[in-house]
Design a protein that fits this description.
The structure is a single chain. Helix content is about 55%, strand content about 15%. It is of the alpha+beta class. Helix 1 (about 15-45) packs antiparallel against helix 2 (about 70-110). The two termini are about 55 Å apart. It comes from Plantactinospora alkalitolerans. Its main location: membrane.
Length: about 400
């Protein structure tokens, strides 16, 4: 019995080991009792040879006494039956004690990984997420449970590490513009000979830094909003068109594309979907913005939209620096820019992570393919507007 102590009276509760032992004991004792009963009945039937003799047959015993054969038979049957019953009960008791003790030991050994799971779960904390059960016994259900628990800990540990990196990177990204603003203000205020031009220059730097911080905060809010609505739990659903969002994004980036003298190829066919228009517009804007930002002079970018009966898609590709295909999944992590973390590159590094989160919220997928001559092509696929919304889905980053 296991005693669970609470704030009130202690409560006795049978453990799984004890219940398995009792079950094995009941089955063993029941089987032994049935065998003893069968033996008793068989012995009683077998010890009746006098039934074949003529009535009145006399049997002479070794001590010289004579007795009726049938009366002698009844005495023999009763004596042997009592002896069989007595010895059988003793044997059944011994077998039951040994069997129950063995069942208790075997159940304890079989359930040992469960105790390891319990003790590991009790020890788990942020500083002990590296602990695992590492069960090495037979390949049975217990091994499957232990392996599943270890795999769950791997996922939780990875999520914690990703969360730590996210917080650290977000702190760094926010601290940088704040440090720039404070430095500029302190330097300018300490200069007694600073004129209006110097103050204007300082104000321009502070404005740019504050805009960068504001854009980062906005991106973090969009990312948090998108991840909170994962699995098609959208707070807002309305008919919208991916082609409309792509067209608006192209218009917003037209000046920058013209400055870089980019060749822009578009094929914007209707791509109706149902979802959050603001998030979908941000998705298209991030893809087009990245295609322009990470392009090169006289480069090329292409934007295509379309749909069929089942799904709608948005494809945004661009030329640019070379990207290894093995580095592509990392681009969808927060604060990753072209496979590099928190460099001096432009942008906050949240663009593709927001795209992934928005796809997840709408039950879609996002895949990216590195171009052989440099650049990246990203394809977003969402359920078409006239299809039944999926209850749960995940955005898959394809290789």
């Amino acid at each position: 019995m296991t005693v669970y102590l609470t704030g009130r009276r202690p409560r006795l509760r049978p453990t799984l080991r004890l219940r398995l032992t009792l079950l094995n004991g009941v089955l063993l004792i029941g089987a032994g009792a049935i065998l003893l009963l069968l033996a008793w009945l068989l012995v009683g039937d077998a010890l009746r040879p006098a039934d074949q003799l003529q009535p009145g047959t006399i049997v002479e015993l070794t001590d010289g006494r004579t007795i009726d054969a049938r009366q002698w038979q009844e005495q023999v049957v009763q004596a042997h039956s009592r002896e069989l019953l007595a010895k059988g009960l003793v044997a059944l008791l011994a077998i039951s004690v040994v069997g129950v003790a063995g069942a208790y030991a075997v159940a304890g050994r079989a359930l040992r990984p469960l105790h390891q799971v319990t003790s590991t779960a009790r020890r788990l904390g942020e500083a002990t997420l590296d602990q695992r059960i590492r069960y090495s016994g037979a390949d049975d259900e217990v091994a499957e449970l232990a392996g599943t628990f270890d795999a769950m800990l791997d996922r939780i540990g990875g999520a914690f590490e990703a969360q730590k990196r996210f917080v650290a990177n977000a702190s760094h990204e926010l601290r940088t513009p704040l440090a720039v603003m404070r430095t500029e203000i302190d330097v300018t205020m300490a200069d007694d000979e600073a004129d209006v031009a110097e103050y204007r220059r300082m104000a321009t730097v502070v404005r740019d830094a504050s805009e960068r911080a504001n854009n980062l905060v906005d991106a973090l809010l969009v990312l948090a909003r998108s991840e909170a609505q994962a699995g098609r739990r959208l707070a807002r659903k309305a008919p919208t068109d991916l082609a409309t969002g792509a067209s608006a994004a192209l218009s917003a980036m037209r000046a920058e594309a013209t400055r870089l003298k980019l060749q822009v190829d578009t094929s914007l066919e209707p791509a109706p979907v149902v979802g959050d228009p603001g998030l979908l517009e941000r998705l298209a804007g991030n893809l087009v913005e990245n295609a322009v930002r990470y392009n090169h002079l006289h480069g090329r970018m292409w934007v295509r939209t379309g749909s069929d009966a089942e799904q709608a898609w948005l494809v945004v590709g661009n030329t640019g620096f070379e990207v290894e295909q093995s580095d592509v999944p990392g681009l969808f992590e927060a604060f990753r820019r072209g496979g590099r973390e928190r460099t001096g590159a432009r942008g906050s590094g949240l663009g593709l992570s927001i795209v992934r989160a928005v796809c997840d919220a709408h039950g879609g997928t996002v895949t990216a393919v590195a171009q052989s001559d440099g650049g990246l092509e990203v394809t977003v696929t969402l359920p078409a507007a006239d299809t039944t919304p999926v209850v749960a889905a995940s955005a898959v980053v394809g290789l």
